[in-house]
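dumping this here so i dont lose it
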């Protein structure tokens, strides 16, 4: 293999404008098109059919369908008029909560199409300070006769109780393998792309419950060649194969620090993973490694420490090497 061949593939983001971005092209338009969330979707459908929408809060990780569910509700309630009756705002708007509140007020005061309520979707509501949330709560009350709020956040615990108690809270979990596989296969069929079974598995693994990641991975991999297989997916998504991560840990546990360090080097340099990605993958796969339970427990303990230190700004490579070193030392 020439040196140029050994270069890791640059992750390619689909370019909006040139080709349609598949996460938008295939965003479900109706609630019944949403994959997974079998516990949530029927309850949302009931609100729509009974024409009785409360304020809602969608809490959960990125790319799991919170925004999609909100827009699907709006499409079902307002049909073709949905855009005029649905205001999407980002709570972390750099210009501050006052701008957000002014936009809410303007929208709530106007009316379109004679509907009883209009929907305000507030993304990243957990980015608001407690004071800003208190102000938001008052705004919600002020306009509750003609607006319904859908708040989206990663962690509902970051939202003050008076807002939570005014909302029906829905917890969106990471999407399961079946949901992601189904969507990936649907899109591939529709685009006429051949995806191997190991390619689908790799997309599911790399996505880690995030449908946006899976679809972007598929689109980026499809640009690379005729067939989307495991190799392309791992390269394009900067994801290590689970076996590679496991081998690194096994070297350390066997006391072969040099081999473990070389494996880490390969992940960081050749595969292009960030230190945080290595930690995430180790954490995700630790229980599937074929190593003694005691070793898994120690690994998890050290991962927690390394993760904390990296979050606090410590050097990623040093923390990962220290983690491997401490596992290797146990063997002495
Ligand atoms: N459950 C799902 N079924 C089908 N497609 C989905 C689902 N969840 C997400 N998607 C796809 O992923 C894209 C991103 O999802 P969405 O915008 O709803 O994520 P989100 O949960 O609001 O994330 P964030 O917290 O980052 O805003 C959608 O455009 C859609 O194509």
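and the seq i came up w/
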């Amino acid at each position: 293999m020439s040196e140029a061949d050994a270069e890791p593939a640059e992750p390619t983001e689909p370019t909006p404008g040139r080709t349609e971005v598949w996460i938008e092209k295939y965003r479900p338009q109706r609630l019944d098109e949403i994959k997974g969330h079998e516990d949530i979707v029927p309850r949302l459908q009931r609100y729509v059919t009974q024409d009785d929408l409360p304020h809602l809060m969608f809490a959960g990780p990125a790319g799991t369908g919170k925004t999609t569910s909100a827009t699907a509700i709006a499409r079902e309630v307002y049909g073709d008029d949905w855009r005029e009756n649905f205001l999407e705002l980002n709570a972390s708007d750099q210009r501050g909560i006052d701008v957000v509140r002014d936009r809410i007020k303007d929208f709530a005061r106007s009316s379109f199409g004679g509907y009883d309520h209009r929907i305000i979707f507030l993304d990243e509501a957990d980015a608001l300070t407690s004071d800003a949330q208190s102000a938001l709560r008052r705004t919600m009350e002020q306009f509750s006769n003609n607006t319904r709020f859908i708040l989206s956040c990663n962690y509902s615990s970051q939202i003050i109780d008076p807002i939570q108690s005014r909302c029906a809270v829905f917890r969106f979990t990471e999407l399961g393998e079946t949901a992601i596989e189904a969507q990936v296969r649907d899109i591939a069929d529709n685009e006429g792309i051949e995806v191997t079974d190991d390619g689908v598995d790799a997309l599911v693994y790399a996505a880690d419950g995030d449908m946006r990641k899976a679809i972007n991975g598929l689109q980026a991999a499809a640009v690379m060649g005729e067939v989307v297989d495991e190799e392309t997916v791992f390269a394009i998504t900067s994801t290590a194969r689970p076996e590679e991560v496991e081998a690194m840990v096994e070297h350390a546990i066997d006391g072969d620090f040099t081999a473990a360090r070389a494996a880490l080097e390969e992940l960081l340099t050749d595969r292009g993973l960030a230190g945080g990605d290595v930690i995430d993958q180790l954490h995700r796969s630790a229980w599937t490694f074929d190593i003694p339970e005691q070793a898994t427990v120690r690994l998890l303990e050290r991962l927690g420490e390394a993760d904390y230190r990296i979050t606090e700004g410590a050097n990623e490579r040093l923390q990962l090497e220290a983690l491997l070193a401490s596992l290797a030392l146990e063997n002495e």
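The beta strands are 55-59, 86-90, 118-123, 147-153, 167-171, 194-195, 227-228.
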